[in-house]
Design a protein that fits this description.
alpha/beta; Dihydrodipicolinate Reductase, domain 2; 9-stranded mixed beta sheet; 7-stranded parallel beta sheet; binds NADPH dihydro-nicotinamide-adenine-dinucleotide phosphate
Length: about 400
């Protein structure tokens, strides 16, 4: 039994708080803190029974975070605010002596740069304090790392090729909206693509490489090669991988909107002067787009995210696919959230539970694939994200 402090009351914060609240034997006390307290209150009210305490916090401010952690003395923080806050929250955890978990790697606000270097640099400090930080414990990154570790443990002597495939075949009925924080999402997908090939990174133009891939229960969807942060840790932790790529589906309408927004400068992250005041166009765009947490109610269809792996076992070539499909409608019925928030919040809860139970507990800073995947895989089945396997899978991307 442990007390957790969840930071961030957006789409993912809603799901992780509700999933933790369902397990009082593990999460005996829950504090939900975020920039806008009314959003925490709404989630707490929906849960009821005064199960969740709510607090206002500015997670960019280390002394404020330290005071909050000292007041509540949680076992760990589940950070589902924005990637910009990762380092301040890690600093506060170190100062007070609290374990840490997040779902997205740190990004400097003025540069869309995705790498683990900043957080991996905390390794010695967490070890010295006898604390653990678990990085990237959502779905991708997160479950995709657990899937890869599970494949490596049970089905391969050597993995050679990994394709992480992420399809959202849902329809929220809005002309244009992002499924998680619009600012973070648009920064990610307007970057150059990158994949791992024969020991080095190969860079592509944004969305340059694409082809239709087939997804279970969904069919063919145009899938675009992108850079995604788990490629960095997976190629480091599984050095036999000769190729590692990440693919995500986008509809033509979504891409048209994005293209126009980019062309007119609305996705810029540098400040521009507007009526004598500096504003960042992408931050302004976020303010006028639908909140991801508001998309759930009429969302139909499902997500399908998995790992397609080639390699060898006992000298023979093996091909394997492991995936989860998640229905937006079912997610909404359970937690009033959409599928993308659900697939992120559930793994964050599971990671926290494994840390609390001591199954995944080691001093230092870790990515999920460095731990035994078996208990995590079992819990995915128990807590709403059942997974499926295809052996001898043949439909790998051609490009
Ligand atoms: P939202 O924008 O819906 O929610 C973010 C929340 O963090 C909001 O409640 C926001 O407050 C709060 N917040 C932002 N800045 C601060 C601050 N300085 N201090 C305190 N609170 C703050 O985002 P999502 O829920 O969609 O995403 C949450 C995280 O999950 C992101 O880091 C995202 O990258 C990650 N993610 C990971 C995925 C994975 O599979 N690994 C997939 C999807 C998301 P306010 O309401 O006031 O704006």
């Amino acid at each position: 039994m442990a007390k957790v402090l969840i930071i961030g009351a957006g789409g993912v914060g809603n799901v992780v708080t509700k999933k933790c609240a369902m397990l009082p034997e593990v999460f005996s006390e829950i504090v939900l803190a975020s920039r806008t307290k009314s959003k925490c209150d709404k989630i707490a009210e929906e849960i009821g029974e005064n199960r969740v305490k709510t607090v206002q916090v500015d997670a960019d401010n280390v002394p404020e975070l330290v005071a909050l952690l000292e007041e509540h003395k949680p076992f760990m923080v589940i950070n589902v605010a924005l990637p910009y806050q990762d380092l301040t929250i890690m600093d506060a955890c170190l100062e007070v002596g609290v374990h840490y978990l997040d779902t997205a790697n740190y990004e400097p606000i003025d540069e869309a740069k995705f790498e683990y270097s900043w957080q991996w640099a905390y390794q010695d400090r967490f070890k010295e304090k006898g604390l653990m930080a678990l990085l990237g414990c959502g779905f991708d990154p997160g479950v995709t790392g657990v899937f890869t570790a599970y494949a490596n443990k049970h089905y391969f002597d050597e993995m050679h090729q990994l394709d992480i495939v992420d399809c959202n075949a849902g329809d929220h009925g809005k002309a244009f909206a992002t499924n998680f924080n619009p600012e973070i999402n648009i920064r990610e997908i307007t970057q150059n693509g990158r994949f791992w090939k024969d020991g080095k990174w190969v860079e592509t133009k944004p969305m340059e490489i694409h082809e239709p891939l087939n997804y279970p229960n969904i069919g063919a969807r145009e899938s675009y090669l992108m850079y995604h942060e788990e490629l960095e840790s997976l190629t480091k932790n599984f050095p036999t991988l000769q190729q590692a790529r990440f693919w995500m589906t986008f509809s033509p309408t979504y891409l048209n909107f994005l293209n126009v927004l980019e062309e007119v400068g609305m996705t810029r992250i540098d400040p521009v002067l507007y009526e004598g005041k500096e504003i960042v166009p992408l931050q302004f765009l976020k303010a006028v787009l639908p909140e991801p947490s508001s998309l759930g109610e009429n969302y139909t269809g499902e997500t399908s995210i998995g790992c397609r792996i080639k390699g060898i076992k006992d000298g023979e070539e093996k091909k394997y696919y492991v995936y989860n499909n998640c229905s937006h409608t079912e997610a909404y019925k359970e937690v009033k959230g959409q599928g993308v928030a659900y697939t992120t919040g559930v793994p964050a809860m599971i990671g926290a539970m494994l840390m609390i139970q001591g199954e995944w507990m080691q001093e230092g800073v870790y990515n999920v694939e460095e731990f035994n995947p078996d208990p995590f895989m079992e819990m995915l089945n128990q807590h709403g994200l059942p997974w499926h396997e295809q052996f001898d899978f043949h439909e790998f991307a051609n490009k």
